[in-house]
User: Fold this.
Amino acid sequence: MNTLRRLPLLTFVSCLFAVSAFAADEVVQRAADHARSHPAGEAPASFVAADYHGDLRDLPIGVFDSGVGGLTVFEAIKTFDGFNNATGQPGADGVPDFVHERFVYLGDQANMPYGNYPAVQKTDFLRELILKDAAFLLGRRYWRAPGDAAPALDKPAVKAIVIACNTATAFGLEDIRAAAQAWGVPVITVGVVEAGARGYAESRGESAGSIAVFATVATCASQAYPTAITRVLGEKSPAVWQRGSVTLAAAIEGEPSVKQTIPEIVDYEIRGLLDERLKAGSASAALDSVMLGCTHYPLVEQEIVDALAKWRDYTTADGTKPYAALVTDGKIHVVDPAKWTAQDLWRSLAQAGLLRPATGTAPAGGDQFYISVANPQWPGVKLDADGGLDRAYKYGRTAGDLSREDTVVVPLTPARLPTSSAKLVRERLPATWASLTAAAR
Ligand code: DGL
Assistant:
């Protein structure tokens, strides 16, 4: 099931290829028309508009990612304590802010990695996948088990959509907002990129240094972070350096086809970034901040900081330090967009009057988790030896078929997590693990 296993072993790639201009709004229009033509929510990528009438405060909050990496964002939301729950004033009060909320998480694991579609000219297809994720969260439809005769239609609609995936935010945030408007659905949509940029602006203090964004190749190519940072900081915006990686997220998940270790990959990545800056002869200030622009990277924060220090101090045989001027010798300021996403989410819900009232009881139903898996019954689908989508088939698909169901969404249980991901979640994301295991009972 771990589709990462089917990634080619590519080396790190700089953000060199250009993203093709988004095709007008054909992709959004098609998704909007498709959902409207299935008002009973019985078809893939459709929902029941009537679920959005009346008081929405009791609805859960939706969170989605291309896979299970977004559980790092889920963890940050579950544990976020930035406000006083009684007064709504900023400041921690020792009680997680979303304690009265429940969540629906979706990981589109069968179609991941999202970060590699634009490089093979499948940007519109990626945009459609992202709109389908949003429609799934709005809707009721899922499969209890792959191969069932009919889908189940009892998943709750959501009052907010958190795009936990950086690539999906870069390529789909505006699309989801446009589609929601076309559908007339008052759903709140929050993305990690905008939140990360705002978080950087709020937390950088007196920094005058450059910032490095580490992300997928697609996120870098989209220029989403440089654009968002410039939007927030205007003239005060620093130089934004970017480095896209094809394999780091896979390595963090324990993907066996990635032969390098995480420190080796990070090391290679950091040196590559610094070499690019040297080659560019950039006059920009030394790097003093890092944006963890991929869901998986908070898990390797220390490795990134260590590698930056290592290469800053690297001395050649003739005694020179080629990278010394590129990296601050002070502390590196690391921005994890997840925490800021939680803050954005809370503020947006509060502003819209959509926070669930504190009833003193745990929200009924608890959290729900879903994951996509390949659907062997779909006509023409091609699977690989592990039962996932065949790589050529996966990247050969094109946008335009909202009813295509070569992957189906099923409940995510600990047993359905790839072994290495299960270990990661259990050891590093305790609030998520507790919620996931409770949901599976
Ligand atoms: N979740 C993606 C992100 O944050 C990384 C994995 C992928 O490429 O799908 O960009």
About this structure: Residues 1-24 have pLDDT under 50 and may be disordered. The pocket of D-glutamic acid is lined by residues 65-67, 69, 112-115, 165-167, 216, 219, 249, 294-295 (CB under 6 Å). The chain has 14 helices and ten strands.
